[in-house]
Design goal:
Layout (H helix, E strand, L loop, with lengths): L1 E2 L5 E9 L5 E9 L5 E3 L29 H12 L8 E7 L4 E7 H14 L22 H21 L9 H22 L6 H21 L16
Helix pairs in contact: 1-2, 2-5, 3-5, 4-5
Length: 237
């Protein structure tokens, strides 16, 4: 990861506050143009972050890459919660430049929210396709919100492809294929995290993220029936 330039960054600050008075704080810093994750220190690289350690079956990276970029990006987060259980209660406060979000929730849900940012800003060639959504990050999103945001992002991408004289996938066929590949990455990373954590909070946070991807695939399979009624005003002559 590149060194942080604090004059040209987007920051999401996550605070996990617990009943015993302890607090864990994480500043997610992103380059404002590329949305790539930034760091001002050398990242922690334990053995489980090596690319060959439970490498995803569809990983496109070759042997010249020593470490899994996602694993390196989330290693410090995983280390902080490796002894936490999924349903530990916590008050999560998320500070963005535009507004502040707060919710009392489980550790796994709070972790899923921040882990989603780290995973798609790591230079993984597959998950990076979801990176535009990070600019409009919505903590604690529901499945329906995730479907709406994912499809909206993809259609905007097709607009820019069209403007650049590239073929545009207005039927969303390739979006379904993308989420199939994302599901394989989530499965591979689940295997990786299972060997890096003592308890289940980290692993189950990834399962929460996977359910959102499944929701998008299911919605596409059903031809977006769950959100179609919202658009009746656009269907009249």
């Amino acid at each position: 990861m590149a060194e942080a330039d604090f004059s040209n960054t987007i920051r999401f600050r996550y605070k996990f506050q617990f009943d015993d008075g302890t607090e864990r704080q994480f500043d997610v810093l992103l380059d404002s143009h590329t949305l790539k994750a930034l760091t001002s220190h050398d990242p922690h690289r334990p053995e489980w972050t090596k690319l060959k350690f439970h490498q995803c079956e569809n990983c496109p990276l070759d042997d010249s890459v020593e470490y899994c970029p996602i694993a390196v990006n989330v290693a410090h987060l995983i280390d902080q919660f490796k002894s936490s259980t999924s349903y530990d209660r916590t008050w999560v406060v998320v500070e963005a430049s535009e507004r502040t979000y707060a919710q009392e929730t489980s550790v796994q849900n709070g972790l899923a929210s921040i882990m989603g940012i780290y995973m798609v800003t790591s230079d993984c060639p597959i998950l990076d396709m979801l990176r535009p959504m990070v600019r409009f990050h919505l903590p604690f999103a529901t499945a329906v919100e995730s479907v709406y945001r994912s499809i909206g992002m993809y259609l905007i991408a097709q607009h820019f492809r069209m403007k650049n004289n590239l073929d545009a996938d207005w039927k969303l066929d390739r979006l379904s294929e993308l989420y199939k590949e994302i599901a394989k990455v989530n499965k591979g990373f689940w295997n990786r995290l299972s060997n890096a954590s003592n308890y289940d909070a980290n692993v189950n946070a990834l399962i929460v993220l996977s359910t959102f991807g499944d929701a998008v695939r299911f919605s596409l399979k059903k031809d977006l029936d769950d959100i179609a009624p919202m658009f009746q005003n656009y269907l009249s002559k």
